[in-house]
C-alpha cells in the first residue's frame, strides 16, 4: 500500500469535544505545578449572553423616534428610597468597584477622570479610598467589603454612595485575593498588612451574618452618615430572586447584581468558570423580586457582568435594570490587552486579547500592576479620555436602539422589545424565541 | 410611631452637656445631635437594646449609656470616650479609630471588629470573634473570649484575663495576643511566642490603661502571634488551611 493511502488505515485524528485543547493544557499545567490556576478577567467559556437577544425595532405597530432629532434621555437617579442625597448619573453606565492594589494609582485616576467626564460614578474596592480617585471622581461609591481593608469613617463620609459588597459574580462565596507581588509599601500601608505577603480577603463580613444582621448593619452605616448616602448592596448572581428580595428587606437603596461573566483581579479559574449564573439568567428573577415587592424603579437595579457594547446596555435595561456597571470593559478601554503591547505580551507567554494574569503585577499596559516602571506607562489623562470616549459610544449605541424602538428614555425599553435567538436565552430572559410567541418556562421566572 | 422629641438643642446649637432619653428621642435624633456637636458630656438613658447608639462619633465626647445596647454601639468611634453601663450586642466599637469604649457588662460577637485604634475595655466576657480582623485597636477583656477571636487580626492587641475559645488567632497577621487563662486551641499559623521585657512592659501599660489593678502579674500571661508561615501561599502548607 502506498504511503499516500496510509492515512485511511489508521483511526482518523479527532479532537475530543470534552478533552479539548484547553482541558488538555490545564491537565498538563496542573500535573506540572500541583496548584490550581489563578487568573484575572472573567468567565471565558461560551455562555448564554446578550448576544442571544435581538431588539425588534419599530414596525407598523411601534413608532420610532428620529435618530438625530428627537431626544432620548439617559439619566438615572440612584438612592431615591431612603437617602437624603440620591445621586444622579447622566448615563446609565457606572464603573464597577476595583481596588487600588489590584489596579495602579494611574488606572484608578483614569477611571475617575473618564467616569466624571461622562457624568457617571466610579467605585472604590478593597483597601479603601485613594486621594487620586476621590480627587478625580465627581461621584464616588465607597465599598464596604468583608475585609474592611482601609475602611475609615471619614472616607465613608467623603463618599457619594456606599456599596455593601456581599459577593461578586466572578466568585460568589469567595473572598478577595491580592498576591504578594502587588502588595507594595503603599498598598500594604493602606491595608495594614506587611508588604509582600499574599493578601487573602475574607469571604464573610466580620460583624454580620444573614439578612437580619445586614439590615442592622445598613442602619448603622446610615446613622454614621446621617442618612445622606444611597446604600447599595452588591451580590454575585447566584440566587438573584431571593438575594434581591433580601437586600430590599435589609433596606438597600440600590441592588447591584453581578453575573458570572463579571471580572476579577485574581481568582481561581475553577471558581470563575463554575460558580454563579450568567448575567442573562439573573436579571429577570431579580426584577421579578422587585416587582413583587412593588420596589421596581424604587430600589434601583444595577446589572454587571460582561457588558461590552451599547446593545448590551440596552438589553440589560430592557430586561428591567436601571443601570449597568462595567469593569473589564473599562480596563480594556484604558488600554488593557491593547495590541501595542504585543511584543511584551509574547514575553509573558500570551498575546493581546488573551492576557489575564492580572494577579502577577506584570501588566505591560501599567493597569493591573504596582510596578513603578510599568505604572508610569499609563497616562491617566489620556486613558481617562479613552474611557470617556468609550462610555460615550456605549451611550450613543444604547440611544440608537432605544429610538429605533420608539423610546424617549432608555428606561422605557422593555422585554416586549426583545426576542431570543436560542431556546436557552428565551427561557433565561423570558422573551419569545424569535419568530414565535414561545417563552420557555414562562411563569416560573 | 414617631417618638416625641425632647428639646435637646438651644436654637441651632446642640447642648454640650445633656441627658438624652431614648424613651423620648429616637436613635436618629440622638446620633444627629451628637454628630452636630463638637464634643461634650452626654448621658443616654433607656437604650433598651437599640442598635447603632452613638455610632460615628468624632469629637471630644464623654458619653455614658445607662443600660444594655444592641448592635454596633459606638461603631467607628473617633476620639470619643463611651461608657456602657450594661451589656452590648454584636460589633460594639466595630471599626473604632481612636478614643475609648468601656463596657461594664458582657459583649456579644465581633466586639471591636476591624478596629484601627483606641482602647476597648470589656469588664465581662466577650463572645466569638472578638477582635476579628483587628487593625490596631487595643482590646482588654477582663473575662473570657469565645472561639475564632482575633481571626485574621492584622495589628493591635487583644488581652484576655480569662480563657480563650477554640481557633484563637486563626490566620493572624501582626496582632499581639495575651491570654492569662486557658486557650481552647490555636488557629492556623498562630503560635505561642516568647514574652520578652518589652512585651511585659506593653502589657502592663495596657492593663493600667484599662484600670486593671496592679495585683495582676504580667508573667501569668502567655503571648500568641503569627508564625508567619502562611503569609505567602505555598503548596506544601496546604494541610494548614
Salient structural properties:
heterodimer; A: 445 residues; alpha/beta; TIM Barrel; two-stranded antiparallel ribbon; 15 helices; 33% helix; 13% strand; B: 241 residues; mainly beta; Pectate Lyase C-like; eleven-stranded mixed sheet; 2 helices; elongated
Structural class of chain B: mainly beta
The Cα radius of gyration of chain A reads: 23 Å
Regions of chain B with pLDDT < 50 over 5+ consecutive residues?
1-12
CATH topology of chain B: Pectate Lyase C-like
Q: State the largest interface.
A: A-B, 34 and 42 residues
Strand content of chain B: 25-35%
What features would you describe in this structure?
- The complex is a heterodimer of chains A (445) and B (241).
- With 445 residues, chain A is of the alpha/beta class.
- Chain A has one domain (41-429): Aldolase class I (TIM Barrel, Alpha-Beta Barrel), CATH 3.20.20.
- Chain A contains 15 helices and 16 strands.
- Chain A has helices at 21-33, 105-118, 131-136, 153-158, 185-191, 210-224, 240-249, 269-274, 279-292, 310-318, 328-334, 342-347, 372-375, 380-404, 423-429, and strands at residues 38-41, 53-55, 76-78, 87-89, 93-95, 122-123, 140-144, 161-165, 177-178, 199-200, 231-236, 254-258, 264-268, 300-304, 323-326, 418-420.
- In chain A, strands 5-15-14-12-11-8-7-6 form an eight-stranded parallel β-sheet.
- In chain A, α2 (105-118) runs parallel beside α14, α7 (240-249) packs across α9 and α10 (310-318) packs across α14.
- The model of chain A has no long low-confidence stretch (mean pLDDT 95).
- Chain B is mostly beta strands and 241 residues long.
- Chain B has a single domain, classed as Glutamate synthase, alpha subunit, C-terminal domain (Pectate Lyase C-like, 3 Solenoid), CATH 2.160.20.
- Chain B is built from two helices and 13 strands.
- An eleven-stranded mixed β-sheet of chain B has the order 3-4-5-6-7-8-9-10-11-13-12, with helices on one face. A two-stranded antiparallel sheet of chain B has the order 1-2.
- The termini of chain B are far apart.
- The interface between A and B is large, with 34 and 42 residues.
Amino acid at each position: 500500500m502506498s504511503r499516500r493511502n496510509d492515512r485511511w488505515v489508521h483511526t482518523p485524528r479527532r479532537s475530543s469535544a470534552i478533552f479539548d485543547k484547553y482541558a488538555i493544557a490545564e491537565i498538563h499545567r496542573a500535573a506540572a505545578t500541583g496548584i490550581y490556576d489563578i487568573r484575572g478577567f472573567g468567565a471565558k467559556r461560551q455562555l448564554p449572553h446578550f448576544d442571544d437577544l435581538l431588539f425588534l425595532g419599530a414596525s407598523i405597530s411601534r413608532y420610532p423616534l428620529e435618530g438625530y432629532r428627537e431626544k432620548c434621555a439617559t439619566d438615572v437617579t440612584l438612592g431615591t428610597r431612603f437617602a437624603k442625597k440620591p445621586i444622579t448619573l447622566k448615563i446609565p453606565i457606572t464603573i464597577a468597584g476595583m481596588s487600588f492594589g489590584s489596579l495602579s494609582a494611574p488606572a484608578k485616576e483614569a477611571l475617575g477622570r473618564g467616569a466624571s467626564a461622562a457624568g457617571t460614578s466610579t467605585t472604590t474596592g478593597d483597601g479603601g479610598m485613594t486621594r487620586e480617585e476621590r480627587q478625580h471622581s465627581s461621584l464616588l461609591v465607597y465599598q464596604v467589603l468583608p475585609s474592611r481593608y482601609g475602611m475609615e469613617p471619614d472616607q465613608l463620609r467623603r463618599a457619594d454612595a456606599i456599596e455593601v459588597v456581599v459577593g461578586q459574580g466572578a466568585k460568589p462565596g469567595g473572598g478577595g485575593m491580592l498576591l504578594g507581588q502587588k502588595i507594595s509599601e503603599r498598598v500594604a500601608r493602606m491595608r495594614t498588612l506587611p508588604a509582600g505577603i499574599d493578601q487573602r480577603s475574607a469571604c464573610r463580613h466580620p460583624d454580620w451574618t444573614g439578612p437580619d444582621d445586614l439590615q442592622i448593619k445598613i442602619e448603622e452605616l446610615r446613622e454614621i452618615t446621617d442618612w445622606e448616602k444611597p446604600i447599595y448592596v452588591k451580590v454575585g448572581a447566584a440566587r438573584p430572586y431571593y438575594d434581591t428580595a433580601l437586600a430590599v428587606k435589609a433596606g438597600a437603596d440600590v441592588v447591584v447584581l453581578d453575573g458570572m461573566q463579571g471580572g476579577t483581579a485574581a481568582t481561581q479559574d475553577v471558581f470563575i468558570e463554575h460558580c454563579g449564573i450568567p448575567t442573562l439568567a439573573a436579571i429577570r428573577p431579580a426584577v421579578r423580586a422587585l416587582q413583587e415587592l412593588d420596589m421596581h424603579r424604587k430600589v434601583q437595579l444595577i446589572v454587571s457582568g460582561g457588558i461590552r457594547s451599547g446593545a448590551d446596555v440596552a438589553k440589560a435595561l430592557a430586561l428591567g435594570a436601571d443601570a449597568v456597571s462595567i469593569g473589564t470593559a473599562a480596563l480594556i478601554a484604558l488600554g488593557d490587552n491593547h495590541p501595542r503591547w504585543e511584543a511584551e505580551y509574547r514575553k509573558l507567554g500570551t498575546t493581546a486579547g488573551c492576557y489575564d494574569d492580572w494577579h502577577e503585577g506584570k501588566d505591560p499596559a501599567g493597569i493591573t500592576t504596582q510596578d513603578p516602571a510599568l505604572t508610569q506607562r499609563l497616562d491617566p489623562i489620556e486613558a481617562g479620555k479613552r474611557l470617556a470616549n468609550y462610555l460615550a459610544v456605549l451611550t450613543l449605541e444604547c440611544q440608537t436602539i432605544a429610538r429605533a424602538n420608539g423610546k424617549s428614555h432608555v428606561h422605557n425599553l422593555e422585554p416586549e422589545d426583545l426576542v431570543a435567538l436560542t431556546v436557552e436565552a428565551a427561557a433565561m430572559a423570558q422573551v419569545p424565541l424569535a419568530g414565535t410567541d414561545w417563552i420557555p418556562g414562562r411563569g416560573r421566572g | 410611631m414617631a417618638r416625641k422629641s425632647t428639646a435637646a438643642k438651644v436654637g441651632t446649637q446642640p447642648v454640650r452637656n445633656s441627658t438624652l432619653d431614648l424613651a423620648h428621642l429616637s436613635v436618629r435624633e440622638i446620633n444627629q445631635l451628637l454628630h452636630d456637636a463638637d464634643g461634650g458630656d452626654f448621658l443616654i438613658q433607656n437604650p433598651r437594646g437599640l442598635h447603632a447608639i452613638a455610632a460615628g462619633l468624632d469629637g471630644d465626647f464623654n458619653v455614658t449609656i445607662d443600660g444594655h445596647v444592641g448592635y454596633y454601639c459606638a461603631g467607628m468611634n473617633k476620639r470619643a470616650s463611651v461608657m456602657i453601663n450594661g451589656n452590648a450586642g454584636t460589633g460594639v466599637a466595630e471599626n473604632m479609630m481612636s478614643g475609648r469604649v468601656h463596657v461594664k457588662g458582657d459583649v456579644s460577637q465581633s466586639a471591636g471588629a476591624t478596629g484601627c485604634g483606641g482602647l476597648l475595655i470589656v469588664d465581662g466576657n466577650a463572645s466569638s470573634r472578638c477582635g476579628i480582623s483587628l487593625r490596631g485597636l487595643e482590646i482588654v477583656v477582663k473575662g473570657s473570649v469565645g472561639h475564632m477571636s482575633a481571626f485574621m487580626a492584622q495589628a493591635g492587641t487583644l488581652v484576655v484575663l480569662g480563657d480563650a475559645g477554640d481557633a484563637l488567632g486563626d490566620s493572624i497577621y501582626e496582632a499581639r495576643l495575651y491570654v492569662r487563662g486557658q486557650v481552647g486551641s490555636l488557629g492556623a499559623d498562630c503560635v505561642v511566642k516568647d514574652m520578652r521585657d518589652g512585651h511585659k512592659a506593653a502589657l502592663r501599660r495596657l492593663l493600667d490603661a484599662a484600670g486593671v489593678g496592679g495585683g495582676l502579674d504580667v508573667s501569668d500571661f502567655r503571648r500568641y502571634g503569627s508564625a508567619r508561615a502562611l503569609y505567602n501561599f505555598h503548596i506544601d502548607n496546604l494541610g494548614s488551611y
